Amino acid sequence: MNIAADHIVRFHYTVFEDGGEQLETSRERGEPLAVMIGRGGLIAGLENALIGKSEGDTFEVTVRPAEGYGELREGFKQRVAKKYFRDAARLKPGMQTVLSTSQGPRLVTVLKVGASVIDVDLNHPMAGKTLKFNVEVVDVREATEEEKAHGHAHGPGGHQHD
């Protein structure tokens, strides 16, 4: 079965900064990542590279910032009251944390910690980077009606409902 919209794909990946070091791998978690194609769960460059592939395929893809995490935006910083951070007491400059926003959770990088506020960089940590992915497609299947209604994969590597 070839990967297309509304298919659930489980895959392992390792991502490198282009010409540089390994940034992340799914193999550390043990389980492959599970996503529903066409629902915005992946950066565009990786999702587009998966389309048409099938179980057992391995490939490399280079993703430029425009189809990845976007260009690095200079000055994209904000001062936020400590009360909006779950883990404010342990945060230090350079650490990453998730900040709840009106548009949903956002990964931010701590720049400075003050007495009552924290300055954060709102750029995604991989913004502005050209990324190289090594991908192994573990399996592909059609999404169930429930998964389509929820807009995401269920089960191992996907979302677990109670």
TrEMBL record:
GO cellular component entries: cytoplasm
Instruction: Please give a single GO biological process term from the UniProt record.
Output: protein refolding
Where the protein is mainly located, per its record?
A: cytoplasm
Keywords attached to this Swiss-Prot or TrEMBL record, sorted alphabetically, are: Chaperone, Cytoplasm, Isomerase, Rotamase
Q: Where is the PPIase FKBP-type domain?
A: 6-71
Q: Where in the cell is it found?
A: Cytoplasm
Q: Which domain of life is it from?
A: Bacteria
Q: Give the EC number(s) listed in the UniProt record.
A: 5.2.1.8
One Pfam family cited in the UniProt record for this chain:
FKBP_C
GO MF assignments:
peptidyl-prolyl cis-trans isomerase activity
- Into which EC class is this enzyme placed? isomerase
Reaction(s) this enzyme catalyzes, per UniProt: [protein]-peptidylproline (omega=180) = [protein]-peptidylproline (omega=0)
Q: Does the keyword Chaperone apply?
A: yes
**What InterPro entries does this protein's entry cite?**
PPIase_dom_sf (IPR046357), PPIase_FKBP_dom (IPR001179)
Q: What protein family does this chain belong to? A: Belongs to the FKBP-type PPIase family.
Instruction: Explain the purpose of this protein.
Output: Also involved in hydrogenase metallocenter assembly, probably by participating in the nickel insertion step. This function in hydrogenase biosynthesis requires chaperone activity and the presence of the metal-binding domain, but not PPIase activity.
Q: What is this protein called?
A: Peptidyl-prolyl cis-trans isomerase
Q: Which organism is it from?
A: Pseudomarimonas arenosa
